[in-house]
Amino acid sequence: MFRRYAGKHALTCAVKALSVRARIGIITAALAGLSVAGLMLPTSAPSAAASSTCVPDYAFVNDPGIALRTQCDTAQTQLTTGGDFRPTLSPDGKHVAFVRVNNNATNPEDAEIMPTTGGDPVQLPGWNNVSYISWSPTGSQFVIVKNEDGVYIVNTDGTISSTILPDYSGSVNAAVWCGNKIVYDESDGFDHVINIYAANTDGTGATQLTSNGTDTWPACSPDGKWVFFQEASTTDPTLFHVSVVPLSGGTPVQVTADAGDGAMTPTVSADWTLGWYNNSSPQGLQFMWLGGTTVVNGPQGVLYEPSFASGDGSIPAPAGFPIAYNSTAPSPTPTATASCPAVQFFGLRGSGEEQSDDGGSGYGSTVGEFERTLTQLDPAVSATEVDYPAVPVLYTGLVSYTSTYNNSVAAGKNALQTALSVMWHRCPSVHVVLAGYSQGAQVAGDVADTLPGSERALVTAVALFGDPRFNGAQSRVDVAATGYSKHRGGIIVKWPTMHSSLRQVPSDLVSRFQSYCIENDPICNWTPQWLSVCAAVTNPSWNPAYQDCPHVQYVVREWPYKAAYWERDMLKARGL
């Protein structure tokens, strides 16, 4: 649900009531004169010391919504409070474009633009099902990625200027304008390989810039000559860093140290400050002026997708750029070449469970119990928790709880798909076990259901607990001993704003898929009566009746323990 600031509702309704022609006029007027000439930029590159103490203004995702950090990273303004992500600042820093998740199955994500001074966003006419939007160097056009439907250069009135990738069969995370090229990452969708490419602005002359196979999230230098990107370590695929490669081609240079779970979604400012989201400790945003190698910690928490204004390109690259991350400090101890486990487990915690819960396992109590039992039964199984927001959901708010939950599920699916892609790229024959509880069950199940057949063949088992998309009619998947009613399904379909359906497990995965739904669990076996019971007892810190809610009884009823034994038998049957 989008929570608007006070006083905005009337204006929002008025804008929605305008004709398409009028809305185009609003955007055109808002962006008219959007010139980098008015941006106050230093006339020369700042010193390393100055840059380390003053981070330029940037936008980022502060879930839910987009926020802006200013005044040397000391002041923060929340610009939106809806299901918004992928913010990119205009070159002069006066506007922010972003993707908004809507409660509309025919228009799930659209492109929006708003001033950084605040106000109501305006939708770019005609653009829905959008996954990424960025700016041209002059701020007069956009580069837009549509979900599985192409990469385009778009004018401010929504018309297409040129097509870069029409109806691509793989996947593209991001596309940016860099110099006289459009730079994008592309996966073929089959071999778990994703690399960085550059094409002319008319879509011709595409060339491959990187070949590591895990290269994604391109960002352009302010002078339009260099491409920054995120990639996995060549020695340990669980570690990530930021590298840079010349737009004209050449050998990439690693500019940040390897970090567990990664240096994610890089961005570069007009004064050559590099920013990124670090998903390991300390989790949050980090910055480094590219004339040195000193890393400065920004705000901490699940704050991601930072975006600087690129400026007019008048500040030259710092002396000696690019500087390798280990050029001024001893190199870290090399990591031994990662060996490939026979079986890899990925687990996802449920709504509201924190990484610190369950003794800091990262799995939450239900999936944590499954993981501990499974690895005790088979110590050869390698286990990894998949970190994602896992936003809390109040039972009393489920009727209207929409965009924030959908964003969290989407982030979880992206995190799990990335983990699988990186792992299978390094270790193509590893067998996989997936487990999730509540929101995590939806994530794990959705990813398993949609994997290509060749990848599903490597999934040894999927165990879901309290799946919001539970389908009581799939008797070969549902564990009857839990007591569920076959006439009830998951809560997800009771709220049309979630635009989801009951789970349909692919036939080739049915024998390796088990869904556990305790009788009267209102999340997977929905009834309004039991939803009311859970709504009345959902604070374990003060209410001893909390355990009366069936949705939190999987551990006490030993279903994760039993599921682990089932999984052990599945491994034995495959000779693993």
3D structure, described in words:
This protein has 576 residues and is α+β, with helices and mostly antiparallel strands. The chain folds into two domains: 9-308, TolB, C-terminal domain (Neuraminidase); 343-573, 3-Layer(aba) Sandwich (Rossmann fold). 19% of the residues lie in helices and 29% in strands. It has ten helices and 30 strands. The strands form seven sheets. Strands 16, 17, 18, 19 and 20 form a five-stranded antiparallel beta sheet that branches. Strands 27-26-28-29-30 form a five-stranded parallel beta sheet, with helices on both faces. A four-stranded antiparallel beta sheet has the order 3-2-1-25, with no helix packed on it. Strand 6 and strand 7 (122-128) form a beta hairpin. Helix 5 (364-377) runs parallel beside helix 10 (559-573) and helix 6 (403-426) packs across helix 7. The longest helix has 24 residues, at 403-426. The protein is globular and about 70 Å long. The two termini are 45 Å apart. 49% of the residues are buried.
The overall pLDDT, averaged over residues, is 79
User: CATH superfamily of the largest domain, called what?
Assistant: TolB, C-terminal domain
**Which outline best applies?**
globular
Give a count of the beta strands, DSSP E runs of length 2 or more. Answer: 30
CATH class of the largest domain: Mainly Beta
In DSSP terms (H or I, runs of 4 or more residues), the helix count works out at 10
User: Helix proportion of residues, in percent?
Assistant: 10-25%
Give the tally of structural domains.
Answer: 2
The major pleated sheet works out as: 5 strands, antiparallel
Q: Structural class per helix/strand content? A: alpha+beta
| Poorly predicted regions | 1-53, 328-338, 395-400, 538-545
In the CATH hierarchy, the third-tier topology of the largest domain is known as: Neuraminidase
**CATH-level-2 architecture of the largest domain:** 6 Propeller
- β content, as a range? 25-35%
Distance between the termini: 45 Å
Rg value: 24 Å
